[in-house]
Amino acid sequence: MTDQAQVTWHILGAGSMGMLWATRLARAGLPVMLIMRNAERLRTYKAAQGLTLVEGEHSQQFAIQAQTPDSDGPIQRLLVTCKAYDAEHAVRQIAGRLRPNAELILLQNGLGSQQAVANLVPQARCIFASSTEGAFRESDWRVVHAGHGHTWLGDSDQDCPPTWLKELQQSGISHEWSSNILTRLWRKLALNCAINPLTVLYNCRNGDLQRHSDEVNVLCVELSNLLAHCGHAEAAHDLIPEVNRVIQATANNYSSMHQDVTQGRRTEISYLLGYVCAAARDSQFTAMHLQALHQRLSEHLQQHGLPCA
Ligand code: NAD
Ligand code: KPL
């Protein structure tokens, strides 16, 4: 591995985001290797002969190489695109293959999973990402790029941007290096906590929360106070107007948590509201409304046969 440009993008988690990144990197001619969950997934992938990216009317298939976690070969660069609750276990499976100076890019929503992965691989550089891209799986091995967004990447330990950012540029992946990625992640976390659980409990689109603005605003005030208490005041700046702006801007959409629940999928609650409530408990901050919301959401998920963690 002498030429930086030839480093393979190993992608762990061939779901919506993994496929979205893999296909765009491959389209730019960059080496990509998908890491499938197990031999059965690898077999069905090989039968499909590649990943298909759908953008508007246009679709294109890419015959990207794939393997399983127990395959041979060192990993220098790893994009982790599992759900937050799977990330630590998935990285543990390939940890022995990471080169000593490997770089991991963690694309999980919420907070908590990134720290768990970083603790697992202290020899590697962990870059955290926060993305507003929208993608969903139309079927196995076929991803729809539904919303063109932006991805912020950053490293809370070293502020030096990696040289491979130019490969994202080359691949048309809209991005920027952020010197305050934790602030970004906390702010996104606060937005998601103020919006997503209520859309599940009221079974409504984001815009319908305008009818529950008192409840939204009370949560925003408590979130702002908690973030300030935890040393993240900047992430809470003008949270009420920002949350209301997002509710209006995405009025017609169902939140990602609402989509998970209606499709019977496990949510990332532990890395969103669960993380915020744990942060409050750990810092002896009374977060009455957030705790009550967490309780209501957990009960709701249980009633729908979904895990509440
Ligand atoms: P997804 O469920 O579509 O994909 C996750 C993939 O990881 C699945 O294919 C699963 O089989 C795979 N996986 C799980 N454990 C594995 C293991 N041990 N080894 C290999 N593969 C494994 O999820 P997604 O929608 O792509 O979301 C990934 C993350 O990105 C989430 O944290 C989500 O909140 C965040 N995100 C998603 C979007 C979006 O539009 N989809 C947008 C922004 C952020
Ligand atoms: O990020 C979101 C989500 O649905 O997860 C928005 C639309 C901002 C709502 O919190």
TrEMBL record:
Per UniProt, the keywords (alphabetical) are: NADP, Oxidoreductase, Pantothenate biosynthesis
The EC number of this protein is 1.1.1.169
Protein biosynthesis: present as a keyword of the record? no
- What does this gene product do? Catalyzes the NADPH-dependent reduction of ketopantoate into pantoic acid.
The record's Pfam families line, in alphabetical order, gives: ApbA, ApbA_C
Q: Which reaction does it catalyse?
A: (R)-pantoate + NADP(+) = 2-dehydropantoate + NADPH + H(+)
* Start and end residues of each Ketopantoate reductase C-terminal domain: 180-298
Q: In which pathway does it act?
A: Cofactor biosynthesis; (R)-pantothenate biosynthesis; (R)-pantoate from 3-methyl-2-oxobutanoate: step 2/2
Q: Name the family the entry cites.
A: Belongs to the ketopantoate reductase family.
Which InterPro entries does its entry note?
Answer: 6-PGluconate_DH-like_C_sf (IPR008927), 6PGD_dom2 (IPR013328), ApbA (IPR003710), Ketopantoate_reductase (IPR050838), KPA_reductase (IPR013752), KPR_N (IPR013332), NAD(P)-bd_dom_sf (IPR036291)
Which protein are we looking at? 2-dehydropantoate 2-reductase
Q: What class of enzyme is it?
A: oxidoreductase
In which organism is this protein found? Answer: Pseudomonas saxonica
* Domain called Ketopantoate reductase N-terminal: residue spans: 9-157
